[in-house]
Structures are given as structure tokens and as C-alpha cells.
Amino acid sequence: MHNLTENLKKITVFSELSSTELRQLSGYFQPFSCDAGTRIIAQATSHNGLYLILTGSVEVRLKIFGGGELSIAKLKAFDAFGEISLISRYPATANVIAEEAVSGLLLTPISMETISVIYPQLADKIKSAIALRCCQRSRLLLKHLPSKINHQHSWSEPTVMKRAFVSEISTFNITDLHHFLKTPQLKPLPIPFFNALHQDEIDILNPWVKLSVVYRGDDVKYSPTDENGFYGLLWGAVQAVILGEHMVKVSTYGPGDLFGTIEYIDRLPPPYRYVAREDAVYLSVSEKGMVNIKNKSPAVWGKIMRLLLASVGSQMSNINWIFLQLNIEDVYKVSQGKSHV
After folding, report:
1. I want to staple 131 with a disulfide (CB 3.0 to 4.6 A). Which of 76, 138, 232, 309 is the partner?
2. What is the dihedral of CA 160, 166, 169, 171, to 10 degrees?
């Protein structure tokens, strides 16, 4: 048991856990082993969880758009892979092949769910560490995209076409949404994120939610006095773009989508601009609001954070899809040596 907790401490996502938390966690791992040449994880498919290598080595291969695979990392004893599956249901971002016979430990999503029930604070710390690592990796890739992306994948800003909305929209909040959703000229869709909250939880969140309108071609912005937060799109379309030689589209959001989660989780400036592809109506929750919710009701804050952490997988999926459009040399330059998929 002592050796296991020491090994877990060497893994990035567990490095901040206490000795007690490591002991609690250690009982949920199960052994795994495979022969050389075994495909442990297949890119673009669901997989079994976080793998901790104790002996042997694996190769991480990225399937390139148009055919072929590129080796982007080799992992050995005490490296880990597959952790994104613990916070989201999104497919694996790369293939993982056993380079030689491998033995180790596996933490499955089902075991993670059990931990969430028995040790909720421990589960939250693990998920937060994984989400933060995802954000860091996303920023690394995004940093290189403007200079690497092919011109045909760039996106130019649309012509500004402003439409008149009734001024009372700016006064709406969650309590008013039932009426707002029935407004015929907008026809927005509910946001699944908020549907996961009970009415008493919505009542706590409600004072900190703002409803805003952004017009085609304009940036989506918080109030200048607010820090990072996150958004939920009710109607219209918003694009995440980064600037370089070209304006590159990273992701498109439609009604029901959350965005702004990367910068909220890692507390750094936004990695890209959010620009309205068409007139849009969105909800926003500022960091100041989340702090107030945490002080008033830690349980509600924890539930909101768990929902946000789960959304990070979609960000990784979007960014990796764009990355597959690059040529092999560019992918290798940015991805070589990265030890997590």
C-alpha cells in the first residue's frame, strides 16, 4: 500500500493530494496487463479510464487527417494516460499502443463515480486537476495554430448586421426564462447545464446570472468590472477565433452550448476571442458571482463546478479536430513529448 501511494504521488493529477487522500484513492485501482503490440486505447472511441504504467512502455500515436499515424510520445513506468475519460464522455484524442509488455493499474470512470459519492471532495480535486491540465494543453496547441493553420481553414469576420432587440431583454434572468423562451421572434433553446440544477439551486444562482445580447460581428464581453466567468448560449451562434496571419475559427457554439470554461478554470486571459457569427442572446455568470455562490452554498458551487469540468472535454475535442488538419511536421513540432492524452 505504501509503494502504491508513493507511485500515485508521482502522477501529475494526484501530486497535490494528501497522504490520507492517496490512501483513500489507492483502493479503487484495479490491475491491468497486456502484451506488446496491444492497442490499449483507440483514437475517437470511448475508453476505460486512467492507466498508470508500473512496468513496460507505450507509444502514443495520432491519426492524421487523410491517413497515417504519427508517434507523438512514448510513456514508461509511472507515466499515466487516459485521464480525460474521468471527467467527460468525449472520445480518446489519440491511439495508445503497448510498445512492450505492460503492467499497471487502472482507475475506471465507474470507480471515479463511486469515489464521487463516498469522497466527493477527493473526486472534485482530481477532476479539477485533470481539467486544469486539459486547459494547459489546449492553450499550448492554440498558441501554435495561427502560424500553422492552412489558409483554407481561416475564417474572416462577418459584416456587422445589427438588429433591434427590445431593451427589456437586458433585465431578464433565469426566473424570467419561462416567459422569454416563449418569445416567438427569438425561439431560443434551453441550456442543458441549467437543466441539471434543481429549482432551489437555480434560486441561489439566479441573482448572479446576466442575460445579454451581442450583434453579428461584435465580441462577446463581460462587464469591464467582472473577472473571468462562463457563458451559456440561448439563441444565435458564436465563434471562438484566434488571431494570427489569418483569423482562425477554433469552435462554433449554438443554442444550449457553454463556452468560456477554459479561462474560468485556469484563471488566465481568454485564449481566443468570442465573436458573434450572428445576433445572439446569452447568459453569463462572472467569477465574482461564483465566489458569492461558493460562500453562500458550497454544495451548489461544487455541483456547478462539476458540470463545468465535464464540459472541458468538448473543448479538447474541438481543438484536436482542428489539429488533425495540420501536416505531419507541424503536429510533431507541437505535440512531441507530451505525456497525456
Report:
1. 309
2. 120
